[in-house]
User: Which sequence fits this backbone?
């Protein structure tokens, strides 16, 4: 998983389809796409929900059904996505949510390890507590703490949970998230598959990104975009479950966790890739230019490698790649995406580079295509994926 941005910024702290002539279809501009999504999002409201756990933080749950009364722009269509609902808590006391729980996000400080940590889910009937399950030993985080996104079985959703903190952990925080069963909201989505220099991907609208999550209650953007010249590319894994039956729902859960719970204002990665080879647009990059970039080709700053984010493009493979490598489809999609990006920026994917943070001046010598662990003390992108990076560099340089 991504880690918080440590360097100072100018913003508040925290399957191929027929080609089209533009990123969002022949008749749609990026401004039109984002504008439509923003207009739709503007009608939804946040309603406080009290947690049954009196020691928990005040919960925030989306309950409004958003209605789109305008016809989609040319080249667009209207699709329906569930609103994300979330409820936050602190500590180990039992939590009961006001909605069916699909994911539990867990964060802590004091140790990077999850040893001793566990979660016990309460069943849908609110009476039967399940057995204690250990937290993953392979979360993706920096040396100051841990972070996990734990999926709940799709057929047997949970009504609550209880946590045991990892040995030595402090400041245990959790978020119950539902990205599947919430009230419906309509989103304007491109009719044609969007493409990045020939590589098909799902735009933010197409995976159901709720653009209002990027904004504070007073309407100001939490993390306004900043742009710097591209320098390097870092590969991650999300350390979530393998065999994900609904990766778009997982991306929405991660988006909420990063944007709201972590207070980063957006999802931490520039792109994500699922096991079927579907590519997802990540960090919002403005109204013009190639995704993840501004109209001048500069890279939008994301939140995936703390202290080394500016000019560093982050791609996350959805799943846990500690013991197993990516699927063939994910490997192919990742290679195609990386090849397209290094050609766009005119860099040698097999080179060594000295990254210089344009904000802090911090330097780091890394491969042009590196893994998260090359920057920070973390398991990411998993031992199996890390072992494939040399092959990825070679493949991106050919073809």
Assistant:
């Amino acid at each position: 998983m991504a880690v918080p941005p440590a360097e100072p910024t100018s913003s508040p702290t925290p399957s191929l389809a027929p080609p089209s002539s533009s990123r969002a279809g022949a008749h749609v501009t990026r401004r039109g796409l984002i504008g439509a999504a923003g207009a739709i999002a503007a009608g939804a409201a946040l309603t406080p929900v009290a947690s049954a756990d009196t020691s928990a933080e005040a919960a925030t749950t989306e309950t409004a059904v958003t209605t789109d009364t305008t016809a989609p722009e040319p080249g667009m269509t209207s699709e329906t996505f569930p609103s994300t609902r979330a409820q936050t808590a602190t500590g180990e006391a039992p939590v009961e949510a006001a909605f069916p729980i699909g994911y539990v996000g867990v964060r802590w400080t004091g140790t990077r390890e999850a040893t001793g940590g566990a979660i016990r889910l309460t069943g849908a009937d609110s009476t039967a507590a399940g057995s204690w399950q250990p937290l993953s030993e392979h979360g993706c985080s920096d040396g100051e703490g841990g972070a996990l996104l734990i999926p709940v079985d799709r057929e047997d959703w949970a009504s609550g949970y209880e946590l045991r903190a990892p040995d030595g952990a402090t400041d245990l925080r959790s978020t119950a998230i539902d990205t599947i069963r919430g009230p419906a909201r309509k989103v304007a989505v491109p009719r044609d598959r969007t493409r990045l220099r020939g590589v098909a991907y799902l735009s933010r609208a197409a995976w159901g990104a709720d653009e209002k999550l990027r904004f504070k209650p007073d309407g100001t953007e939490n993390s306004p975009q900043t742009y710097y010249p591209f320098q390097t590319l870092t590969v991650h894994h999300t350390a979530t479950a393998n065999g994900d039956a609904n990766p778009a729902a997982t991306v929405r859960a991660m988006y909420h966790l990063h944007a709201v719970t972590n207070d980063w204002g957006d999802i931490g990665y520039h792109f994500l890739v699922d096991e079927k080879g579907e590519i997802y647009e990540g960090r919002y990059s403005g109204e013009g230019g190639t995704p993840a970039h501004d109209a001048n080709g500069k890279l939008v700053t994301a939140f995936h490698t703390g202290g080394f984010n500016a000019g560093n493009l982050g791609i996350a493979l959805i799943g846990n790649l500690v013991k197993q490598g990516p699927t063939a489809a994910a490997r192919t999609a990742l290679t195609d995406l990386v090849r397209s990006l290094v050609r766009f920026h005119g860099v040698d994917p097999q080179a060594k580079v000295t990254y210089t943070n344009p904000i802090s001046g911090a330097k780091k010598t890394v491969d042009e295509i590196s893994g998260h662990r090359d920057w920070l003390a973390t398991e990411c992108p998993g031992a199996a994926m890390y072992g494939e990076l040399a092959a990825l560099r070679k493949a991106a340089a050919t073809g």
About this structure: Residues 8-69 have pLDDT under 50 and may be disordered.
